[in-house]
Amino acid sequence: MTNPQQFEAFMRDHQNMVFSTAMRLLANQTEAEDIAQEVFLKAFEHFDQLDNNPRAGGWLRVVTTNLSLNHLARYRSRWSFFSELSGGSPDEAQEPEFPAGQTLHEELDQAERRALVEQALQKLPAAQRVPLVLYHLEGLAYDEIASKLGVSLGKVKTDIFRGRQALRKKLRLTLQPESV
Amino acid sequence: MNSDYDTRLEAEISRELKDLPPLRAPDSLVPRVLAALERRSVAPSYRRSWQMWPASLQWASLLVLLILFGGLCFAGWKLSQMEAVTVSMQRVENWFSGFSAIGGTLSVLWSSAVLILKHLGAGFMIACLTALGLGYAVCLGLGTIYVRIALAASAPFERTPNRSRSWQP
After folding, report:
1. Spacing of C-alpha A5 from chain mean position
2. What ipTM, to 2 d.p.?
3. A60-101, pLDDT tens digit by residue?
4. CB neighbours (10 Å) of residue A55?
5. Is residue A176 domain-resident?
6. Chain A residues whose beta carbon lies within 8 Å of the beta carbon of residue B28
7. What's A24's DSSP letter?
8. Does A68 share its domain with A114?
9. What are the residue ranges spanned by the domains of chain B?
10. Cα distance between residue A3 and residue A12, in whole Å
11. Rounded distance, CA A19 to CA A32, Å?
12. In this complex, is the C-beta atom of A88 within 8 Å of any C-beta atom belonging to chain B?
């Protein structure tokens, strides 16, 4: 039988990672909490295998990603038409104003910059944010992302490129010169 | 797309994203999960998911299902061989023969409708389809306008700067 105290400690150890993964994919706090709860309920069913297992974090991450993607596929498709309509303009309203000639790095301290990157990521349209998160944060390859999302490889590459461009614009990133 | 630019952009975005610390989960998450587990534990075992049943019950339920399935297959095979059943089946078929007459009538009505549509001509059909399409477009447009208005109305609350959120790092 699972010890509730042990499981609570297990949850406290992994809750931020699980919540972050869901939040970055869904960009909605309520939905991310629901997914995190579902993930931990599943973890409870397999706790005898997960407890003290060094691969528990990886298992939780994969389950969170899959549940989040299922959630997006199930509940978001019907609203995609409307969300596409409203997808462009709110982002611009959220963009902070910087004085000309200054980069983001010069102007903000690290915590502020991270908060801004997080916010910029959350504000990307789902079509760009999801493959971008899967590629950069979950470490999936382009073809794996295409297969998970059920879209073509070309679309994944285009969406990721657009997502990067949008982030670069929002964060006013100056690209490093090519290293020789 | 310039490949050098792409590579540098990818590296820069990757650095920015990987630099992000995990978001802080809401304090309510752990109590929420524990409450859900508590609700599950007080529920009788037959109301929990099959995976949560005790192993002995899982095996017993599998056995019962296998016996039921085998029994159904056997009964079906036996019944199909019994003469009384064959006679009964024929009787049931006779009862439903009236439905074939209804089917015939419906088929005649359908043929008449097709004939009328042919008589009215392709122009009429196109006009009907266009009217349907326009009706659909009007509904879609009105819906879109409604959603846009609703989004615009909710936007000032969403866009309030410096709002406090528990997930912010």
Report:
1. 30
2. 0.75
3. 999 999 999 999 888 766 555 444 444 444 444 444 444 444
4. 10
5. no
6. 33
7. H
8. no
9. 109-156
10. 14
11. 6
12. no
